[in-house]
Design brief:
Glutathione S-transferase Yfyf (Class Pi), Chain A, domain 2; DNA replication and repair protein RecF; binds magnesium ion; nucleotide-binding; DNA-binding; DNA-binding_RecF; ATP-binding; Rossmann fold; binds adenosine-5'-triphosphate; 15 strands
């Protein structure tokens, strides 16, 4: 798929951006802090409904504005669709498809597909387990939008169950009595919901990982042939986890989670928090025999992060989906060999959006149409604009 047009209204530093796009490469070049990543972030938000940089929408709405709008004309296998997302401060966000309002935001998932590479990806290797769970869960939602509902419901069950553990911890610790019986009964209900939804999440992650693992290993080998082989494994955090192959069966996972909830109940009551479930699992990344986290060198860390994204790109392609590739500021960090390997992977992609502070950092074959991005104005009027476009330099 590719985007033909992107419009931003009051999105971050852009009061208005109207960007005509074609298949092939588009490069945004400009100095640090001038608004390049903001454009890629907006495309990412259209495709995942989440920013890769912030957890809430407030920072994405231009200072002083009430609403930020991201709109795109997406071309997908001969069909064109306009998709529009309004991020509202203090009110529900709204989406439209071909100008018709959507009942749920999730209805626009799948219209714009993208894979984003960004410097923040280093956190996939070095950061907390939450970063890696997010990688799996977001991929899953992009491929199967209905999965988003399961994740939302799980979070809500987890929130309510944790609130109960906290608020009833006194009563529960004292044990018997009417209050304690009622709280235990409610806790049983939440346990059942948590185990059921949690099992769907674990089984989904395992199935995804099965497909992703060889693609990431291949991509890593291409980027860092001199390094050790890259591998991914799921860490299901229960006392005695079954083999990974068994975790693809949601019924089995549900039973294991229920047993673990029983085993840890007193602990959860004593500590007043939820200690069991896929919100505590991890994706273990390793190079040879060592975990990548804490052991991988700087270059290996970059290669692994890129391999995770390239593997994701190949996963979409295996589904028959050609996502837009968003390369945010990645070339400056890479050595010659890795630059060339990434450029090669990108040249076969239908549409690539690249940002760079220095145009020369972008490999020759990948420059395409170039837009110069500049921050202009003072104080509250400070904003990003495109000052020049050079469409002669097609890749
Ligand atoms: N909500 C907002 N309202 C107005 N301006 C914003 C908002 N959020 C971010 N900005 C501005 O956007 C700029 C950062 O934009 P962006 O991250 O796209 O820069 P960049 O060109 O990618 O820079 P770098 O090369 O350093 O990565 C900052 O100057 C910031 O002040
Ligand atoms: Mg940037």
């Amino acid at each position: 798929m590719h985007l033909r047009h992107l419009r931003l209204l009051d999105f971050r530093s852009w009061p208005l951006l109207e960007l005509e796009l074609q298949p092939g490469v588009t490069t945004l070049v400009g100095r640090n802090g001038h608004g390049k990543t903001n454009v890629l972030e907006a495309v990412g938000v259209l495709s995942t409904l989440r920013s890769h940089r912030v957890a809430s929408e407030a920072p994405m709405i231009r200072t002083g504005a009430e609403t930020a709008m991201i709109a795109a004309l997406a071309h997908n296998a001969g069909r064109e669709l306009t998709v529009e997302l309004a991020l509202n401060s203090g009110r529900a966000n709204r989406a439209r498809l071909n100008t018709s309002p959507c009942r749920r935001l999730g209805d626009i998932l799948g219209v714009v597909q993208s894979v984003l590479f960004a410097p923040e990806d280093l956190a996939l290797i070095r950061g907390e387990p939450a970063e890696r769970r997010k990688l799996l869960d977001e991929l899953q939602v992009q491929r199967r939008p209905a999965h988003g509902g399961v994740l939302t419901e799980y979070s809500s069950v987890l929130r309510q169950r944790s609130a109960l553990l906290k608020s009833a911890s006194g009563v529960l610790r004292r044990g018997r009595g009417e209050g304690a019986d009622a709280a235990l009964e409610t806790l049983d209900v939440w346990d059942g919901r948590l185990a059921h939804l949690g099992a769907g999440i674990v089984a989904g992650r395992i199935a995804l990982l099965d497909e992703l693992r060889p693609l990431v290993a291949d991509a890593y080998r291409g980027l860092a042939p001199e390094s050790r082989p890259a591998d991914l494994a799921y860490r299901f955090r229960v006392a005695t986890p079954p083999d990974e192959s068994e975790l693809a069966d949601p019924e089995l996972v549900e039973a294991v989670l229920l047993a673990e909830l029983g085993r840890r109940r007193q602990d959860e009551i004593d500590r007043g928090m939820s200690l069991v479930g896929p919100h505590r699992d991890d994706l273990v990344l390793s190079l040879g025999e060592e975990p990548a986290k804490g052991f991988a060198s700087h270059g290996e860390t970059w290669s692994f992060a890129l391999a995770l994204r390239l593997g994701s790109l190949e996963l979409f392609r295996a589904d028959g989906v050609e996502p837009v590739l968003l390369l945010d500021d990645v070339f400056a960090e890479l050595d010659r060999h890795r630059r060339a390997a990434l450029a090669e992977a990108a040249t076969g992609v239908e549409q690539v959006l690249v940002t760079a502070a220095v145009g020369e950092d972008v490999p020759d074959g990948l420059r395409g149409t170039r837009h110069d991005v500049v921050m202009t104005g003072e104080g509250a009027g400070r904003h990003s604009v495109i000052t020049a476009t050079d469409s002669e330099v097609h890749s």
